[in-house]
C-alpha cells in the first residue's frame, strides 16, 4: 500500500495506490511545496510519517470492502506487534520515500 502525497501544487493532495497490497506500506512524497504534515492522511511526522487509519479507509473508497477491511486489520495487527501503531493517534507508521 502506498500513500502518495503530492506537495507540488502548494496544497497537499493524497492518493492511495496499490490499495490491496498489505505486505508493503510507505508514504511517497512528490514535490516539496509544503510540509508533509499538511497532508490530510498524515497524523504526525517525526522520523517517519504516521498515517491515519481512518484516512486509509477513506482513501481506499470502493476498494474498502469487508475483505479489504479484514486485510487492513491483519496489517495493523502485525504493525502493532512491531510497535508501529500509535493508538492515541489511531495511526500506523510508514517510512517516507522522496523519489
Outline of the structure:
It contains two helices and seven strands; from the N terminus they run βββββααββ. The protein has 99 residues and is an alpha/beta fold.
Characterise the protein shown here.
The chain has 99 residues and is an alpha/beta fold. It has one domain. 24% of the residues lie in helices and 32% in strands. The protein has 2 helices and 7 strands. The chain has helices spanning 53-60, 66-81; strands at residues 2-6, 13-17, 26-30, 42-45, 49-52, 85-86, 91-97. Strands 1, 2, 3, 4, 5, 6 and 7 form a 7-stranded mixed β-sheet that branches. The radius of gyration is 13 Å and the shape is globular. The two termini are 16 Å apart.
Contiguous helical run count: 2
Average pLDDT, all residues: 91
The proportion of residues forming helix, as a percent range, comes to 10-25%
Elements, N to C (H/E): EEEEEHHEE
Instruction: Measure the end-to-end span.
Output: 16 Å
| Apparent shape | globular
Radius of gyration, in angstroms, nearest whole number = 13 Å
Low-confidence stretches: none
Structural class: alpha/beta
Number of strands: 7
Main β sheet profile: 7 strands, mixed
> What count of domains describes the coordinates?
1
Strand content: 25-35%
